[in-house]
Specification:
Largest interface: A-B, 101 and 101 residues
CATH architecture of the largest domain in chain A: 2-Layer Sandwich
Number of domains of chain A: 2
Helix content of chain A: 40-55%
Distance between the termini of chain A: 43 Å
Radius of gyration of chain A: 28 Å
Strand content of chain A: 15-25%
Shape of chain A: elongated
Oligomer: homodimer
CATH superfamily of the largest domain in chain A: Bira Bifunctional Protein, Domain 2
CATH topology of the largest domain in chain A: BirA Bifunctional Protein, domain 2
Chain lengths: 443, 443
């Protein structure tokens, strides 16, 4: 038997599965606090859906195949096309704004992709039906608060914000016009965080941008100074309008107390062609500026895919980079396994009926309970208890007939004898102590 | 654009997605209370893994295809083969018993399958490394307690328990021996809950079972009386041993207070060939005895698949039948959407900074908060609030400068003016009232 999962796929043994549950629970809770509702679609769609959005070249990156019915099918590489399809089907009847989140597993399969993951999970949040900048602020705030909920701070990450339309207007003013030239410039600028300025300058020159314009552009977008942009483009109406919008964006973010997490950065253009306004990426401030999350406004996409026009914006946040960050920063909770709170130790097999009845009673009271499933030495039971649980309750032939049990707090190595009617109270107190002992970033 | 999902797949719009979240949360919580740990594998495996377990004929039911690397791949139709693979890879280093659960989406694709779902979600629980009947009891108890957690009672469902080895021994004693004849009899008996006795009798005759033996068999297994079995097979050691085991099983279930949920039913054989001991199915007592869940012991499977020998048992419970039952019995919680608790109504756009600051404060305190993302008439905001939230907090130009807000409890149509420092206290009280108002079967 082949023991490994398919290349690029992960097995989730309990420790990794518990971490995944922790991420998902935080993601869900963050979205819920912002009034977002869950949705999901199938993990498979017609390949055509992705081709319509991203063009023929996307097919080379898809995990796609032909099904038994002869349909060209792909495992979803991203969630937005499914979202667009669902909104096209039922969006007209839904009250606006639509605020939805999802946590899909996404797939890709490039042939030359040895050693890379072919799947990951992604937290997706989208707002549909709202064109105001307040929606951009809300979505960015959700992104920031989600990362904060894991214990990350403004020293750990920043959200870099730009505006595709501002950059277009600036290029126009610098004499770089025409969709094709602009596309090449966007692509070159997109590489600024990964490539030296000289290399990008060269790319701009190769794209037919004149030396003076390329230097102007690089100076301008290198400054990350919205005021400098404002002064420079005072007389360019389209640019001024977008600068005002960004200033309003920053002002509202400030009202939420989140200004310290956000920077204006005109080098953020986002590779994907469909963004139409404010775009943003969250970066790890340490780990060589890894992107943790990214998104922006895509007001034309739903109509372009064949649905009714509807302003829209969204972001995605993957599980892989975020997990790496939490590991590096030591931000996983000490106890995230939701493992048993109490292990019932059975001193004599004749007391098994008592153990089963007590086990049921405690589980019905909401406690997580474990015990031996076969006759087992008491020492071995204590080892199992120490591995799995926080407390042990000892059911012994001397105590039990008198209505007593020993309760041992395993980490503290303390024990006491209590009446069986007091077990729930002791376990509630223990749960409270555990909850209060949790590290930063957890609740 | 094609608006529908692929045939046999479901879109999860928010209401359905919220129900799915509710099922998953209960499943997870039930498993955790029994000390089970989460695991998961990839949604795709080599087709060969399923062929090894179920033979070549399974391929006709698989959602299978060839990937870009030329591998024969299948979307997982069940979780056990993945579990067996993972245990074969790392099981030797894990403390026993292994108690694992998972909630995979499963897939199948038969060509002649119009109108049937091609995917569903399934709660899977397995115990590995424990051969004692206490493990069978524990797993059955988890199945029962899971259904109880949804508000289902012994009037709604029963778990029918049998033993493959008891039936084999009984057949042997009735003169029906040989693996092939036994297989045909198992298949005929398996149909007893769906077909009239006469039809099954005919099938038995066609399988070469003599008239007398067929009638004997049908009388015997029709009785559902373990004592009758015991009397009949007193002198057949293998049968007596299994009857003792089943009696012990029933006794332990009784210790847990769950005897009323369990019946002995020798017609339960479970179609799958790999079961080796106690098997069980949970049935809806009303809806024409639909199977809600099923499982049993499969002690030989891991070794047969090429892993180390390890006793094992498990069950699966799908989301589709369970959801239908909860709908029919009206057991979905009245509020399962985890929607916003409070909607902030903005009377004047000049107060948006106050709204954003208050919104953040309440979200940081753990409340689910919604508010308008654009300038909007107060009446329209109240309609949105009523659709989505339990309370509205009105931020108005008269009250706010004096440190006051109006809080409206939307269902009760009550309102009062409070100091802004009291909002959290009011919302906590509201949360408590909501929690206490939940219907049976929810916590």
């Amino acid at each position: 038997m082949e023991l490994n999962p398919l290349p690029g796929f992960r097995d989730f043994f309990p420790e990794r599965a518990a971490r995944r549950e922790y991420l998902f629970a935080r993601w869900r809770e963050s979205a819920r606090r912002f009034g977002f509702e869950p949705y999901d679609g199938p993990p498979l769609e017609l390949t055509d859906l992705y081709r319509r959005k991203s063009g023929e070249e996307i097919v080379a990156q898809l995990y796609c195949f032909e099904d038994k019915g002869g349909r060209a099918i792909a495992l979803r590489p991203e969630m937005t096309p499914t979202l667009a399809r669902m909104i096209a089907a039922q969006g007209a009847s839904l009250p606006k704004p639509i605020k939805w989140f999802s946590i899909p597993q996404l797939f890709r399969y490039e042939r030359q992709q040895r050693g890379r993951l072919r799947e990951h999970f992604q937290f997706n949040c989208d707002i549909l039906g709202e064109s105001s900048v307040e929606a951009d602020v809300e979505l960015t705030a959700l992104l920031i608060e989600t990362l904060i909920s894991f214990g990350l701070t403004a020293e750990d990450f920043s959200v870099r914000v730009s505006d595709r339309r501002l950059l277009s207007a600036a290029l126009e003013a610098l004499g770089i016009s025409g969709g094709e030239a602009r596309g090449r410039v966007f692509a070159a600028v997109d590489k600024l965080s990964r490539e030296p300025r000289e290399k990008v300058r060269e790319r701009l020159r190769e794209s037919g941008i004149e030396e003076k314009a390329a230097d102007d552009l690089l100076d301008l977008i290198g400054s990350r100074d919205l005021a400098q942009f404002a002064a420079r483009f005072e007389t360019v109406p389209e640019a001024s309008e977008r600068i005002l919008l960004l200033q309003r964006f920053m002002g509202l973010i400030e009202c939420m107390g989140l200004r310290g997490f956000v920077e204006f950065d005109p080098t953020i253009v986002r590779g994907l062609a469909y963004y139409t306004g404010i775009v943003f990426e969250a970066f790890d401030r340490k780990g060589a500026l890894r992107a943790i999350s990214g998104g922006g406004r895509y007001d034309d996409l739903l109509e372009n895919l064949g649905g009714a026009p509807l302003p829209a914006l969204g972001f995605g946040m993957g599980d892989v980079v975020l997990s790496e960050m939490l590991t590096e920063r030591n931000l996983w909770p000490a106890r995230l396994d939701d493992g048993p709170e109490v292990y019932l130790v059975l001193v004599s097999e004749t007391l098994r009926p008592a153990l089963l009845a007590l086990g049921r009673r405690l589980r019905q009271a909401g406690f997580r309970v474990d015990y031996p499933l076969a006759s087992s030495a008491v020492g071995k039971q204590f080892r199992a208890a120490s591995q799995r649980a926080t407390a042990a309750v000892v059911i012994g032939p001397d105590e039990w007939p008198r209505g007593l049990v020993k309760i041992k707090f395993l980490a503290a190595r303390e024990e006491k004898t209590i009446h069986i009617s007091e077990i729930e109270t002791e376990l509630h107190a223990l749960r409270l102590r555990r909850a209060q002992a949790k590290p930063r970033g957890t609740s």
